[in-house]
């Protein structure tokens, strides 16, 4: 609520009369939202970007300092994820404590979140007001990974969703429907 005090003077019949009035203006503030994701192949980045545009949210792409490209990078990534390892990530531009809702996306590797996402969550524990999680994978459902994300962040997500790599690459109707449901739910919490 913004309280505006308006003081104005009226001149009536040659005499100066000062009238004081208070006006209350209620402004609805849109919540600040941040979409954070790690993407090795561009699939998670595509979903994160679509969400950010649809919600007019800021974006933060996590950059893993470890080279995870190629077949060897893929194998090491799976090993690191499976063992719950963290990694070195580039410093972030956005502080999650400044946001009402933080939407975090991860690819699923070895039935786990990506090490960059694990690192991000651990570095920012206690900074999240509300969280939404989304995952991308070849076949593993989000329900295999999101509980460990919630446990790590010590907060239940207000919404969680998973996208299959194939449906994302093909812009399949199932992906579009899940994405729209997610966007509408988040907008409904505003």
Write the topology of this structure.
Layout (H helix, E strand, L loop, with lengths): L1 E11 L2 E11 L7 E5 L5 H13 L2 E4 L8 H13 L18 E9 L2 E2 L1 H9 L6 E8 L8 H8 L5 E6 H5 L3 H16 L2
Parallel strand pairs: 3-4, 3-5, 5-7, 7-8
Antiparallel strand pairs: 1-2, 5-6
Annotation field: number of helices: 6
- The CATH superfamily is known as Flavodoxin domain
Order of helices and strands: EEEHEHEEHEHEHH
Highest-level CATH class: Alpha Beta
**Can you give the helix content as a percent range?**
25-40%
Polypeptide structure, described:
This protein has 190 residues and is an alpha/beta fold. It has a single domain (30-188), classed as 3-Layer(aba) Sandwich (Rossmann fold), CATH 3.40.50.360. 34% of the residues lie in helices and 29% in strands. The strands form 2 sheets. Strands 3, 4, 5, 6, 7 and 8 form a 6-stranded mixed β-sheet that branches. The protein has a two-stranded antiparallel sheet with strand order 1-2. A hairpin with a 2-residue loop joins strand 5 and strand 6 (112-113). The longest helix has 16 residues, at 173-188. Mean pLDDT is 85; it is low at 1-26.
